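Ticket 4471: requesting a sanity check on a complex prediction with copper (II) ion. Repro inputs:
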Amino acid sequence: MVFLVMSVLPLAALAGGAGGHGHDMSEGHDMEHMEHMGHDKHDDEAGRKGDPADVQRTVDVTMSDNMRFSPSTMKFKKGETVRLVVHNSGRIRHELVIGTMAELKEHAAMMRTDPTMKHADANMLALDPGKKGELVWKFDRAGTFDYACLVPGHLEAGMRGEIVVK
Ligand SMILES: [Cu+2]
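Returned structure tokens:
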């Protein structure tokens, strides 16, 4: 009985999927999808500003003049609130900005256009040489995200890392 149910369900799903390729139906689906994506653009896809009272994990991150973050990969659980204690061990200014690579590249392009632009947001931390700072972030969506230094030229030189949220 169980086997029967298990084997029938995927077939039903397949049949539904094939039906969905009809012209009208797939168009409707695409429209819905695009509206959804458009709406999401206004949120931070990688999560949101975290409440320091909810911090479940603290991670030390070092930024150095060799254009690298240490660590360069982080793994979190979906819903986890994390405190990143960031230290700029270099002699020049660095930043840690969390986002999707598309968001980060867009932001980096803006920074190149106007290098004097002062930017500050919950998803980023800019530190002068030798300084330490903290960023509290809630990873409320599963996915693979990125962090990068958006001081002009740094991301391009490889100053980036990857965050996996499961
Ligand atoms: Cu940098």
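Notes from triage: The first helix runs from residue 2 to 19. Leaving this open until the requester confirms.
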